[in-house]
């Protein structure tokens, strides 16, 4: 399951999505996530699904590789669905002991599952098609106006980029530690919750030590290269918008406008 987490990984291939300006992908991801919280009926989710599948197809990233990242959050999704399924008041459909599944609860649970799936897959598209360096440059450019109020934009972008870059590294380290502990006879599956929590100690301790060691090595490497933050720094490849970036903005804003129109004017829901 550790290797199934795709957040923070970059998938190398040649596609239009990979060649887009990172600012386009960041803004598009934010607008797509916002649109998911604006959708209130199946029509909106169908449009969101068509948009997301089209982007994945254009990106040339294997769909099974992108969906693989869902395995790590299945448990969280199940908890969310169950809570919405049984705790939402409304028209009763099925009663199980003291728990009642309502029509409104079933609708909300399905919508929540779809929303979480689209949110995770949509976010993965950005990280899978954008290198950490480009992601840093894009975030820094988008947050550049905040410099006027003394916000350390470059440092914030650098921290976010390093955090994303360290996710797959720490996951790989965790996988190695788990395999080493299993070879020594460790048991992570059997026992009650307290026993399972105690069994994680042999994993967490060396993982924290490894993380601090990597952080120290990174800090020393940056200091050895005289890194001094974002003041007066130049870019070897400065970001510049191209025609394909502007066309992509038009497509994304068109999609977002369509979602808003559906939210305001389309009140018909096939669920009802």
Write the layout of secondary structure elements.
Blueprint: H1 16-19, H2 22-38, H3 42-59, H4 63-67, H5 74-87, E1 92-96, E2 99-102, H6 103-128, H7 132-142, H8 153-183, H9 193-199, H10 201-224, H11 243-265
Antiparallel strand pairs: 1-2
Helix pairs in contact: 2-6, 2-7, 2-11, 3-6, 3-11, 5-6, 7-8, 8-10
Q: What is the helix fraction of residues, given as a range?
A: 55-70%
Strand order of the largest sheet: 1-2
Q: Measure the end-to-end span.
A: 38 Å
Radius of gyration: 22 Å
Which residues sit in consecutive blocks of at least 5 with pLDDT less than 50?
A: none
* DSSP helical segment count: 11
Would you report the number of β strands?
Answer: 2
Order of helices and strands: HHHHHEEHHHHHH
Largest sheet: 2 strands, antiparallel
User: What portion of the residues fall into strands of 2 or more residues?
Assistant: under 5%
- Computed structural class: mainly alpha
Query: How much is the average pLDDT?
Result: 81
Number of domains: 2
The shape, in one word, is flat
């Amino acid at each position: 399951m550790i290797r199934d987490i795709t957040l923070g990984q970059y998938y190398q291939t040649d596609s239009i999505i990979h060649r887009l300006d990172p600012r386009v992908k960041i803004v598009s991801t934010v607008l797509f996530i916002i649109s998911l919280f604006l959708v209130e009926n199946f029509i909106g989710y169908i449009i969101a699904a068509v948009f997301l599948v089209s982007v994945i197809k254009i990106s040339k990233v294997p769909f099974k590789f992108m969906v693989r990242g869902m395995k790590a959050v299945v448990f969280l999704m199940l908890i969310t669905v169950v809570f919405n399924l049984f705790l939402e008041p409304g028209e009763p459909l099925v009663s199980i002991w003291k728990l009642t599944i309502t029509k409104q609860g079933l609708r909300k649970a399905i919508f929540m599952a779809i929303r979480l799936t689209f949110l995770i897959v949509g976010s993965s598209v950005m990280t899978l098609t954008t290198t950490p360096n480009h992601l840093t440059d894009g975030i820094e450019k988008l947050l550049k106006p905040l410099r006027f109020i003394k916000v350390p934009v470059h440092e914030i972008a650098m921290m976010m980029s390093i955090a994303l870059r360290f996710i797959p590294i720490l996951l790989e380290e965790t996988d190695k530690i788990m395999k080493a502990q299993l070879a020594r006879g460790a048991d992570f599956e059997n026992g009650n919750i307290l026993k399972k929590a105690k069994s994680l100690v042999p994993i967490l301790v060396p993982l924290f030590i490894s993380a601090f060691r990597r952080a120290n090595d990174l800090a020393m490497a940056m200091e050895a290269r005289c890194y001094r933050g974002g003041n007066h720094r130049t870019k070897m490849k400065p970001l510049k918008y191209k025609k394909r970036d502007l066309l992509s903005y038009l497509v994304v804003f068109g999609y977002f406008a369509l979602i808003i129109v559906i939210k305001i004017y389309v009140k018909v829901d096939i669920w009802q």
